[in-house]
């Protein structure tokens, strides 16, 4: 398996030419890199105008590996080939390196680039990526992988440090400026020439294509394909300073995981990218296993979208019963700057709240609390000038009794824990449980199996008045913000709770209807797609040039998306016959509208070429209708293409087919029709560009012939 690594953008607040002068001092050897023993120049090229400098070196490395492993491998040193291509005209340096030793067993590729900062031409950006593919190594494959990861981590940490060391060295020698390259036709002054000779300029690595472009170009500009890093902003790429300021101290490998998962989301979930802090939470919850973090995060994104959780703070007002009797609220912050949430669980009538509101209303309220917590973490990060990504929860259990162990109440609590654990990982920084009574172990036994091990380690439990002693509350919360009901001097505005009047209780039927209403308040619908049973929806268009828009996620399996037009309406599906075209399943409805007697081309026509959508993909798009009539949007099961009789099926095909269990797919979709007179954008832009409906696979392409505009993203 190929391991890939990607560093954040590192920004040097120095001009490119000065950075190159510092970089050149690393050769032929660098005392700051103990394993870098020596290097020999294999080949070198300089263009006549001095704009291009390409140098290839053979580097001798003393890898920090066990002596036994070196003896088994029969080597003392490892050799790498490094090709540096420096383009002074474009002000870019690309470095490409690969291992020469054991290249038939281990393949290591590394690419680095120095470029001018896109927003400040006097700053320089640096990026580094690498890949490792260990095919075999005398049975020591895992050991070699660990050694390679250790070396990579060490190099990343030292990279900027070394450049800054040589910058200081240059400054001590009186070199603080290196002039930019100018074409030979512009003769520099003698003073400038002397300055240029005094200050050696480094060489670096650029791909051959970029080299050719630099040789042929006459005007400055960024070479094609070179990414433009951004400094201090998460909008494009992540830079190291931004990570440290807003996300915290991460190891190089953790940075790599964050950047790679973020890049994947940018490519596959256009318009729906979670904030960097939230991506990092999912990675931390899965010990930076990218595949596991990606899986749970995609599930969470689908859940948030379906239930409109992103808008809960703006669109949902808690019932008055919750405002009066839910004994919890935000209260200042702890000593680490984390927002502090106080919950007086012992004073809260959980049975009364469940009877008066139902399980779903309580869950939604807890979700709004978590959303508010995320917002407060962002605010505190700005206020305290350091990353704050979690909050502290103080739970006072005084008054907890057997009434709190009422079975439906415990069931609601377990469900809330399950939802919060799945969608708000690593948001709880610390949980302080105070005044735990004798009945608490019973409650703890019920709920602890549903709490993640990492979360459980953040629990601190105090019985009686133990929280007032050493190692107690004062270790975590400043004295001046300790609530009055815990013996502090700070007035706490958290409601005191109390018994919910029975007059507010609702019947089971009322609660069921209310629960259904709460969680069906979504613009999205779910549907199941079976092999041989597509899901279809009908849209009637009265005026030509209306715009049909859609947004759907493929939650399970692979599907084919089609759009058809018919002059006559299909018959509605029959629900009472054995051959009914409508199926209801737990995962959503399945409706078939196109009569099996209909013939394509006679009774209905395809207005766009089919679009194949993979599991996890998110598709947004629009279609400008040419004719009035009936349009059918269809999601159809995608079967794997049959392999030729003379060839064996590919492993990828077999694995893909196994993932689709029982020939069933699931989609979650939303559609809308916008009349031509209501469309506020450019109708011609929809008709003529950003479409290529039949050729979309991972990004939007364009076609001047299509009347649809669609964006697809895999996730």
TrEMBL record:
Tell me the segments the record calls region Disordered.
214-234
**Domain CRAL-TRIO, chain residue ranges per copy:** 318-494
- GO terms assigned for molecular function: RIG-I binding
Protein name per Swiss-Prot or TrEMBL = SEC14-like protein 1
- Where is the protein localized? Cytoplasm; Golgi apparatus
**Which GO terms of type biological process are on file?**
innate immune response; negative regulation of RIG-I signaling pathway
Q: Assign the protein's first listed, main location to one coarse class.
A: cytoplasm
The entry describes its oligomerization and partners as: Interacts with RIGI (via tandem CARD domain); the interaction is direct. Interacts (via GOLD domain) with SLC18A3; the interaction is direct. Interacts with SLC5A7 (via GOLD domain); the interaction is direct.
UniProt keyword Protein biosynthesis present: no
Record keywords = Cytoplasm, Golgi apparatus, Immunity, Innate immunity, Phosphoprotein, Signal transduction inhibitor
Name the Pfam families on file.
Answer: CRAL_TRIO (PF00650), CRAL_TRIO_N (PF03765), PRELI (PF04707)
List the CDD domains hit by this protein, alphabetically: SEC14 (cd00170)
Q: Describe the location of the PRELI/MSF1 domain by residue ranges.
A: 3-175
Q: Supply the gene name.
A: SEC14L1
Cytoplasm as UniProt keyword: yes
Q: What does this protein do?
A: May play a role in innate immunity by inhibiting the antiviral RIG-I signaling pathway. In this pathway, functions as a negative regulator of RIGI, the cytoplasmic sensor of viral nucleic acids. Prevents the interaction of RIGI with MAVS/IPS1, an important step in signal propagation. May also regulate the SLC18A3 and SLC5A7 cholinergic transporters.
A Gene Ontology cellular component where this protein is annotated is: cytosol
Q: What region holds the GOLD domain?
A: 520-673
């Amino acid at each position: 398996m190929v391991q890939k690594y990607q560093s954040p953008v590192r920004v040097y607040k120095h001009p490119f030419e000065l950075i190159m002068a510092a970089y050149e001092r690393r050769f032929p050897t660098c005392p700051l890199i103990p394993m870098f023993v020596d290097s020999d120049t294999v080949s070198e090229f300089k263009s006549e105008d001095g704009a291009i400098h390409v140098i290839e070196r053979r580097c001798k490395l003393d890898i920090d590996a066990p002596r036994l492993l070196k003896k088994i491998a029969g080597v003392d040193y490892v050799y790498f080939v490094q090709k540096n291509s420096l383009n002074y005209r474009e002000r870019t340096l690309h470095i490409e390196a690969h291992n020469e030793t054991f290249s038939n067993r281990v393949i290591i590729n590394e690419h680095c680039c120095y470029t001018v900062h896109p927003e400040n031409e006097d700053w320089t950006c640096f990026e580094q990526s690498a890949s490792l593919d260990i095919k075999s190594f005398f049975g020591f494959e895992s050991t070699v992988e660990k050694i390679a990861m250790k070396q990579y981590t060490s190099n990343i940490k030292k990279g900027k440090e070394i450049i800054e060391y040589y910058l200081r060295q240059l400054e001590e020698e009186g070199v603080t400026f290196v002039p930019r390259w100018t074409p030979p036709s512009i003769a520099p002054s003698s003073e400038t020439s002397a300055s240029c000779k005094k200050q050696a300029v480094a060489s670096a690595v650029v791909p051959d294509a970029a080299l050719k472009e630099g040789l042929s170009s006459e005007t400055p500009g960024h070479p094609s394909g070179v990414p433009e890093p951004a400094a201090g902003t998460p909008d494009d790429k992540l830079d190291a300073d931004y990570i440290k300021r807003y996300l915290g101290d991460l190891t190089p490998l953790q940075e790599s995981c964050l950047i790679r998962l973020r890049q994947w989301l940018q490519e596959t979930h256009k318009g729906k990218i979670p904030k960097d802090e939230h991506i990092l939470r999912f990675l931390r919850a899965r010990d930076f296993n990218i595949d596991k973090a990606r899986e749970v995060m995609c599930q969470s994104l689908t859940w948030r979208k379906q239930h409109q959780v992103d808008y809960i703070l703006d669109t949902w007002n808690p019932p008055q019963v919750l405002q009066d009797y839910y004994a919890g609220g935000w209260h200042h912050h702890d000593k680490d700057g984390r927002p502090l949430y106080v919950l007086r669980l012992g004073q809260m009538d959980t049975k009364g709240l469940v009877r008066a509101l139902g399980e779903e209303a309580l869950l939604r309220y807890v979700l709004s609390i978590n959303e508010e917590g995320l917002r407060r973490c962002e605010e505190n990060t700005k206020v305290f000038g350091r990353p704050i990504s979690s909050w502290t929860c103080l739970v006072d259990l005084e008054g907890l009794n057997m009434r709190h162990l009422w079975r439906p109440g415990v069931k609601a609590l377990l469900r809330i824990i399950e939802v919060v654990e799945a969608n708000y990982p690593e948001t709880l920084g610390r949980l302080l449980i105070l005044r735990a009574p004798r009945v608490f172990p019973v409650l703890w036994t019920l709920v602890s199996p549903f709490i993640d091990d990492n979360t459980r380690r953040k629990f601190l439990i105090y019985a009686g008045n133990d929280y007032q002693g050493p190692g107690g509350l004062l270790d975590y919360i400043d004295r001046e913000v300790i609530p009055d009901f815990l013996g502090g001097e700070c007035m706490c505005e958290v409601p005191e709770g109390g018994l919910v009047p029975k007059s507010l209780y609702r019947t089971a039927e009322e609660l069921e209807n209310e629960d259904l209403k709460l969680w069906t308040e979504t613009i999205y619908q779910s549907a199941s797609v079976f092999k041989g049973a597509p899901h279809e929806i009908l849209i009637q268009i009265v005026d030509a040039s209306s715009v049909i828009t859609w947004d759907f996620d493929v939650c399970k399996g692979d599907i084919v998306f089609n759009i058809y037009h018919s002059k006559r309406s299909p018959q509605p599906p029959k629900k009472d016959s054995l051959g009914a075209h409508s199926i209801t399943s737990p995962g959503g409805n399945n409706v078939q509208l196109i009569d099996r007697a209909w013939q394509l081309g006679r009774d209905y026509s395809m207005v766009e070429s089919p679009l194949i959508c993979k599991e996890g993909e998110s598709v947004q798009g629009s279609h400008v209708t040419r004719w009035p009539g009936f349009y059918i949007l269809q999601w159809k099961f995608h079967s794997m293409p049959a392999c030729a009789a003379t060839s064996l099926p590919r492993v990828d095909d077999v694995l893909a087919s196994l993932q689709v269990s029982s020939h069933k797919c699931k989609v979650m979709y939303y559609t809308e029709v916008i009349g031509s007179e209501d469309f506020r954008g450019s109708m011609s832009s929809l008709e003529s560009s950003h479409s290529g409906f039949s050729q979309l696979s991972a990004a939007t392409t364009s076609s001047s012939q299509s009347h649809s505009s669609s964006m697809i993203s895999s996730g």
